[in-house]
Amino acid sequence: MEQSSRSASREDIAEGLEQAAILVVRHMSDRAALNLTTSMVLDTLNREGPVRVTTLAAAAGIGQPSMTELVQRLERQRLVTRVDDPEDGRAALVTITDAGRVPLDDQRRNRRDLLAQLLTALPPEDEATLTLAMHVALPIIGRLIREAHGSRTQGTTDRRTRVANQRTSRTSMKTRARRAVPPNTKEPA
User: Fold this and answer.
1) Which of 65, 77, 87, 136 is deepest in the core (most CB within 10 A)?
2) What residues contact residue 104 under an 8 Å CB cut-off, 6+ apart?
3) Domain check: are 88 and 168 in the same one?
4) pTM to 2 decimals?
5) Mind listing the pLDDT tens digit for each residue in 3-40?
């Protein structure tokens, strides 16, 4: 009985979150502003700092070639720039510029202004109830966002770790091979 109750509760939560997403995405977005993927990329860079294109692609749920095109377009618009990866000189990291923060901040401010205006239509007791619910729900929603982001980028992180481990393994095999003493010779003293 408890399992079916929990299942119904999860469905109610999913429905509520979906309705909130519909409100924000469909009714609060400025069609002339940033599209959803661009907004998500700039927001990720703003929150997390410089990251690789592969990480951005995984977080957005799109292919690396599509993300590369988007990053190139954002570079031409001077919203992002590439910097050298300090851990891997062959790779680059994408970072947001001050110019990239402007449309992101404008979009966030406009969306919040629209929501605040919409809230004026509620009776005071509904607004108080929603305020209390947000104080409770926001930390939980934040954890869900981090979990969703982590699960999307986990595959990229695992792949990067595997590649780095393979590189290290090949390097140490080459080093051991160079250090190996050829047969029928004496080791140096």
Assistant:
1) 77
2) 34, 39, 42, 43, 46, 96
3) no
4) 0.64
5) 778 888 889 898 988 888 888 877 776 666 788 889 88
